[in-house]
Design a protein that fits this description.
By secondary structure, this protein is of the alpha+beta class. About 15% of the residues lie in helices and about 45% in strands. The strands form three sheets. Strands 1, 2, 3, 4, 5, 6, 7, 8, 9 and 10 form a ten-stranded mixed beta sheet that branches. Strands 12, 14, 15, 18, 19 and 20 form a six-stranded mixed beta sheet that branches. The chain is globular, with a radius of gyration of 31 Å. The chain starts with a helix and ends in a 5-residue tail after the last strand.
Length: about 300
Amino acid sequence: MKRNFASWTISILSFVMMFSFTGCSQNQQLDDAKAAEKNEIVESQKTSNKTLKKPVVNYATLKVDKNQATSGDKVKVSVKIKDEDDMQSAYIYYLSGMTDNLQMIELNYNEKTKYYEGYIEILDSSESGTWKVESILTVDKRNRTTNTYNSLTVNDTTLENRQDLSSGDFTVSNTNPEYNAPKIDMSTLKVSQKSAKLGDKIKISIKITDETSIQKAIIVYKKPQSNKSETIQLTYNEKTNMMEGYYTVSETSESGIWKINYIIAHDTNYNSRTINCDWGDENDLKYFVNGDFTVEEIEE
């Protein structure tokens, strides 16, 4: 009896000690977690309280490595930007030689030169003429943007930050640009299904061609109830030689007949073509119905 009592007493003491150590361990882990969380909050507050300076373009340093260029050349444009530690990204915009289409060039920091640098590749299809800087855009780590405009190309005098950025200009010669808009073959327009329910994925396809290549193509549908627009991005499928896009029927999709409002295609030379369902060639307009599809009533 005494031996059993002693054994029972030892078991209880062991359990109490084990519980105590476990409790201490758990408390320690909890304290460590709280301390780590507190440190994260403090560091987060330090970051949020940090005063971010808006990057400032030193426009006097703007330069290109060549003033004359032709097909096959690469023009490097460079500029210094102050407070670059607080900067997220930088871009320079050019007006092309003949049509004044905007072309965006990303600028990346070069630690060796201490300049932000970007490259413009001159192709045989690039426009001849003088390429002029339109503006330089900087974005800081809080997504605040600052534009420095070229006072010689941007006539709006109400813009605060206007400077002479002509030191970034260069001239392109002996190229053969094309100005033909992409061709949209409306007779090839089709959808993978004419009726769709919740969860269905509808493929819309059409053949679009160009002498260069298609930079962007979209089909814009008109929703059946609100008449709001739904934009479908198209991408090229090498297997089918078609431009294709998809629409997935979700719980928020409007039921009824979805009809195409217009189709737009841009090539790499910024030539574009738009076909609208309300006007244009009759041979094109008759094919719009091939892009229609019906979304069945979606139960709540």
